[in-house]
Write a structure and sequence with these properties.
alpha/beta, Amidase signature (AS) enzymes, 16 helices
């Protein structure tokens, strides 16, 4: 295993550039050099936007020299998952269906990052259309784990997690439909934040499951994740599902005084269903050790129950695939995507274009979703899954009346080997067994590192908060981060 090269933190870089102690152009040069050095082995990036980042850095340095300020993310190199639209670089969603596509507009989160002075250095690899848990389903190539090239980085935001964990960028954006930010964060050993559904605009995010998708943040530490969230969260008239609640001052919630007081008296709910069969011994020991340490630090640990959690994977793979079937119907060889077989008529055009554009996993999920929505099966599958979702939300509401935040493993195991689960889709789906329910309930959650297994592979701990409870979530996560970093 090779130790990653540290890139410096979001807050350190932004504060230094904004104050004139560092030049954005030099920060950009160093980041691009790290990517050139490390990425040939890790393969986190589908596209490196070097010219765009350099030009933005030059503009930023000029603005700061002229006294116009730099922004909350001044000079911070950030990577963007390649299912977020960018005018300056291709947006493929790691699919042949969109190979070479350059959108005519930027996603809202991209606009907000650049307005805050961030340098967007490239687009990261993912499972095709965000459908996967290993980044092996990319149409172009798999991404490798930054600590062990023979293992997966997780997915679907595996490229973003690997870029952060390998030290190529201090932060990256991903998307989380069923755990696709938190699971790769746990595998790679970085922080992965999935906000409340609607907290961040989805405008410009290529849709997978529209009622589940949420843009998320990957970073080296909790304070950096909070700084990025502060920039990209907030209402957006272009997204009808976006919350009208203004984002809170998340960085203000990260003061040492507030964080140091957070653990004392914190009601920490432990869902018994997340510590049963299927959880590896190494992950169990690490998470239970963190809980014991929190108890010694003054937290009040309470047992809670999520009785419908056992149905979450089944409900998710009905709802998500049904929405995917609808969302991806537009890639028909006429409106979007590759075109094949046009000379043979419309039926051949659609069939051959979709066959050429979509990989095996995307085709599998489209077929599952189409079946669930078909006449005679809608009530038996899709409508029933929606009822389970409602009951699962009730379970979370009850648990969060007894506790301030819930704690669980992020994943049942550490990173598995490349190719290990490709022939067993159900085994792959179960890699997200502890994260999926959060998306069904629309709640905010975060994964932070909490140790390593016998092979030195990172283990992730998940915290879950009530809807719009990001300030509480970040405070608790920062308190855990500090506690776990301390000796004893």
């Amino acid at each position: 295993m090779n130790a990653p090269i540290p890139p410096g933190s979001v807050i350190e870089v932004a504060d230094a550039v904004a104050a004139g102690r560092e030049r954005a152009a030099e920060v950009c040069r160093a980041a691009l050099a790290r990517i050139a050095q490390i990425d040939p082995d890790v393969r986190a990036f589908l596209h490196v936007s070097a010219d765009h980042a350099r030009a933005r850095a030059t503009q930023l340095d000029s603005a700061i020299e002229a006294g116009r300020g730099g922004g909350a993310l001044a000079g911070v190199p950030i990577a963007i998952k390649d299912n977020l639209c960018t005018r300056f670089a291709p947006t493929t969603a790691a699919s042949r269906a969109l190979e070479g596509f350059v959108p005519p507009y930027d996603a809202t989160v991209v606009e907000r990052l650049e307005s805050a002075g961030a340098l967007l250095v490239g687009k990261t690899n993912l499972d095709e259309f965000a459908m996967g848990s290993s980044t092996e389903n990319s149409a172009f190539f798999p991404t490798h784990h930054p600590l062990d090239r023979g293992r997966v980085p997780g997915g679907s935001s595996g490229g973003s997690a690997a870029a952060v964990a390998a030290g190529m960028v201090p932060a990256a954006l991903g998307s989380d439909t069923g755990g696709s930010v938190r699971q790769p964060a746990a595998f790679c050993g970085c922080v992965g934040l999935k906000p409340t559904y609607g907290r961040i605009s989805r405008y410009g995010l290529i849709a997978y499951g529209s009622s589940l998708d949420q843009v998320g943040v990957l970073a080296g530490n909790v304070r950096d994740a909070a700084r990025v969230l502060e920039v990209i969260a907030g209402p957006d008239a272009r997204d009808a599902t976006c919350s009208t609640h203004r984002p809170e001052a998340y960085s203000a919630a990260m003061t040492e005084e507030l964080v140091s007081r957070r653990m004392a008296g914190l009601r920490l709910g432990v869902p018994r269903e997340y510590f049963g069969e299927g959880l590896s011994d190494s992950v169990r020991r690490a998470v239970e050790a963190a809980i014991d340490k929190a108890r010694r630090g003054g937290a009040r640990v309470v047992d809670v129950s999520l009785p419908r959690a056992r149905h979450s994977v089944a409900a998710y793979y009905v709802i998500a695939t049904a929405e995917a079937s609808s969302n991806l119907s537009r890639y028909d060889g006429v409106h979007y995507g590759v075109r094949r077989g046009a000379e043979a008529g419309i039926e051949a055009l659609v069939r051959e274009s979709r066959g050429a554009g979509f990989g095996a996993e995307v085709q599998r999920r489209i077929m599952l979703g189409t079946f669930a929505l078909s006449a005679g099966y809608y009530d038996a599958y899709y409508a029933k899954a929606l009822r389970v979702r409602r009951l699962l939300r009730d379970d979370f509401s009850a648990a969060l009346r007894e506790a301030d935040v819930l704690i669980s493993p992020t994943t049942p195991t550490t990173a598995f080997r490349l190719g290990e689960k490709l022939s067993d889709p159900l085994s792959m789906y179960l890699a997200d067994v502890y994260t999926i329910a959060v998306n069904l309930a629309g709640l905010p959650a975060i994964s932070i590192p909490c140790g390593a297994d016998e092979a030195g592979l990172p283990i992730g701990l998940q915290l879950i908060a009530p809807a719009l409870g990001e300030s509480l979530l970040l405070q608790a996560a920062r308190a855990f981060e500090q506690m776990l970093a301390s000796a004893g």
